[in-house]
Batch of 2 targets.
Target 1
Amino acid sequence: MLAYLILSGITTGALYALIALGITILFKAAGTVNFAHGELFMMGGFLAYTFVTLLGLPYLLALALAIAGAFVFGIITDRIAFRPLIGSRALGVVLATVGFAFILRGTARILWGGKGDYLSLPPLFAPDPIIWGPLIILPQQLVVIGGTAIVLALFAAFFRLTRLGKMMQATADNAKAARLVGIRIEHIYTLAFGIGAAVAAISAVLMAPLTLLYTDMGFALFVKGFAAAALGGLKSLPGAVIGGLLVGLIESLAAGYIASSFLDISAFVVIMVVLIFCPSGLLGGPAARRV
Amino acid sequence: MPTNLGRFYAATLVIALAILAPPAVAQSTPGVTKDAVVVGGFGPLTGPSYLYGKLFFNGIDVVFDKINAEGGINGRKLVLIREDDRCDPASAIAAVKKLLEQDQVFSISGGGCSNSAIAARQEIEQSGAPWIASGVHDGITRPIAPNIFSVSLTSSIESAAEIAYVQKHGFKRVAIVAMHDSWGRSRYEPLLAMLKDKGITPVADEEVAPDANDSTPQVLRLKQVNPDAIIMLLFPKPGAVFARDAAKLAFKPVLIGQTSISDPVAFEEQVGMPGATANFVTITQVRYMPDSPEVADWSRAVEAKFPGDRLSVYNLNGIGHAQVLAEALRRSGPDLTREKFIAAMDTLRDFHDDTHGGGITCTKEENRCNKTAVWIHKEPGGTVKIVDTTTVE
């Protein structure tokens, strides 16, 4: 039982980790949380469904187009809900992204609302379970776990090794200083919104064969992803992944060993306890101190 | 002169009466004119629950078209005005207010999302407009109000049907897996009470959230107590996740569904794992499947009016609903009022429309007019078949 619960927790946790990763990337670069992130996840999934199922495009091409489409939606989010409000109070940006989330959800309802109540996206591999020692695993579970690891590795390399990644880091650390050395921080913000949305789309296409697609799916997943990001420290990419995996594992183990009704609340209880003792999250570094 | 004056007074009196007292029906009954009856419909037209609204109303529309082509009812054409409540209680209240106050409809149909329908109930009850509800929560029909009826299976009737199925098929070890939101509790609580009355103790009772993405812990817990049947009080999404995870872990009890999962073809696709729905049976409100020859005419009508749609059980539900509504309008006679319509509803005894599983009977004491559950099953790769019928007393 323990092995199954851990595997199930890691799979669900990988989904939360990817959502948290998108939230963290944007927060690192622009210092804001995009409350439309869950809806960008949903749009990514529906774009994949459109390309794969409705238009019959080759699977990998369809997924690439869905991720590119979500990247564009991220840029639109920046232009509509963030760029005009740079310099204004944080609450204004939050409300703007909340409003944009409703626009995206309404648009999705119009475009895909009549195709079925819960739509299925075909998995990348045949859905027959794989027997691995004492475990029975769905191939898509391995795709999710492997995909998450690859995405994390790519972003770690992007931030450490590329000039663009270093410019994003510099903007996140000190936007004024970054501007003084010639970085066009508005472009960095736009890129961060786009990359965050693209990561949301990656998580959607990986998970949709397991979770099904529906137009109202975004917010609940955003809450879990945001909780994971907060647990990890909100500015740390490894923290986002660790936070996501922990949330998934806690949910699974609590539901398996205590009661199934504990599934949704257990992770939040643990997060509250962690944040009481460690307000910056697990890998958020020490809290800023006024001197 | 006196004669002319008398004629003048008489003519004036006639004109005044004509102005002040037009036909009583047209003036006093909202939504009724000499040549039309306007019915208001509210329910989810968009979003994942559109099946219970949009498709349901599409079914009503094709019945209205057929009746109107035949001259209407008592010379009046039937008109349906739809409002989208998006399964949102606040939107449902706004939709109902618009229908009653702005559109001045004669009666209300629908309310396919229970939470929204319950929220809108007070407005409708106070208006006195007849409401034939399509939501399943018992809170829509209880406490009894003279103007509220349901021709859908309500949650407690479905729970009773599930227990009857369990007993009929001799399942000894029964477990429950349920959502504990308002919809789930409307089924879960009467189910527990009825099981207790029958002396049946569930061997396990697990919760799955409406937006669950994984139910491995629940499946593992259930597997430990080895039930031979599981009553699933779940929406299609958590239901599909549960069926998939059960199959993944080679756990194969009989899975007993209910009307929220009444399209086994769609459900099999949602589960997405070969053979995972082999032991799944569920309830539908209608006695035919969309591909049954008995409903071929309705299938053609739906496809002609709504290009791209294929007939579904939700259309069939709307078709039966509209035929009950039409029958009560016929029985109300030409001088249609809401009071006469409500009285006519109370005369329905074992009325058989084209689709519902059994006869429709409404009385002043029992406004839940449909008590026949039809059990369906789909062999993997096969067609959907009716396997049983349960009429709850």
Target 2
Amino acid sequence: MKPPRVFSRLTESLQVLPGIGKKSAERMAFYLLSYPEEGMMIVESLEKVLSEIKFCSICGNITVEDPCSVCSSSDRDRKKICIVEKPMDVFAIERAGVFDGLYHVLGGLLSPLDGKGPEDLRIEEMVKRVKEGLNEVIIATNPTTEGEATAMFIRDILKTFNVKITRIARGIPVGADLDFADEITLLRAMEGRMEYKE
Amino acid sequence: MYLKSLYAKNFRNFKTLKLDLEPGINLILGDNGVGKTNLVEIVYFLSTFGSFRTPNDDDLVRFGESYFIISGMYGDVKVEVRYADKKKVLVNKVKQERLSNAFSTIPVIALTSSDLEIVDGAPVRRRRFMNIGISMYKRPYIDILSLYSRALKQRNSLLKHATTGKEISGIEIWEKQLAMNASPIVTARKDYINRLLHYAVPVFYSLTGQDIEIAYKEGADYENLMEQFKQMRKKEIERGYTLYGPHRDDIIFKTKGHSAKVSASFGIKRLITIALRIAQARMLTQIRGEEPILILDEMIGELDKEKLELLSDLLMDYEQVLIATTREDLQERGDYNIYRIEERDGAPFIRKGAETIHSI
């Protein structure tokens, strides 16, 4: 006997989510069936998110108000932008409170394997912002192959403009023991060493 | 340091195995098919987190089971591998986030029958020989290799979907990533081959009275890799994948001035393989300041008396050697620790020296 059609439709839609296979989708669907109240709560918040959340027309981050609170703030350095892959990266940096400029969310990284080219990222919007006049662009993509390739791509595009381009440092985590650092991190830390000035 | 004990559960034909090992030469005797190779495979796996017989870890799980656990005490360091769909490595009970960081914590050099492919087989076999050899003392090498492979996949995917005569937008970015990671890979490989040669020449000479040459064959024009990509674009698009780079490198072994792959006899090919493994072991001893555990899985079965004598002398330098063989006459050669594997009711039993049965 096959599961009811409506049920299969649910498991199929759950499989659209990244990292969710058939087995996990079925487990989720059964869970939602057994706890209908929680299921309804998910439905409500999903509806709310889909109707209220939009992408900021300036930086591309997720927001309720457009432009977002960072882009519309008056006490941030508007001549500096930090380029990140995804909205969660903005929240990570904001949580740390280590940056007072603006952001630019690319919405992904270059990856031909996933069919992602420059036209799928918010590159044009970035160039437009640089043209309006900036002092510094900080490239903060992850140190993966795709992150490095995207960083390089951005650098090549921006080098014709009169703007300082920087890349976030990679190295030993603060408070960590050198003894426990993994070896590629040590290698990168060695490569990215800086003059120790007063 | 040496391997004091081994534990295995559901690994190959072992249901549960607990075995104490001794320093010196450990001779693992038994008929074909009782599990001698399985035993040394455990040791090799604890060092490299892979088998020398199969790329597929599922093959190692005992029939009808869903997981295996193996561990070894190397001095006071415990290395454990748990496998159930995914591999988990623990060093002194600490889970390793990156396998590359724990690679070769127990240094092992293994000489197995599939090693003949290093001389005889496809280039990929020789690249793997270098890759594993380098990773034993230069761990970031594995990570750089995987960054390189990722960039290679990305570029190949662009080439596959490209049409001849049309510009491929954004391909240079991936070429730069390839070039950036190719350079440390090639430098490490050339350095490795130079050092290996230094150790292999005297070993091969003592076994055969002949000279050996080992040359590194570059899979691209590394001085001008970006230029080469540009010039060969049409050809690469036609083929649909990247034709130049470290993934096309090779090693050439020569004896008497000729390629050993093409013209050496079977016997010489086997002695080249033996010399390479001993050279690796000597080199590792020098670099890491500790002797690796040597594994000899068969390979020595058909050596004549004189070569066997020469080889035994070379083995004396190592703190611990594990030899899996069907050759009973080896135990007369010296003061070896004897392990005898027998099959009883379809399960392997191990006897250690004159002691009683040790494991099931």
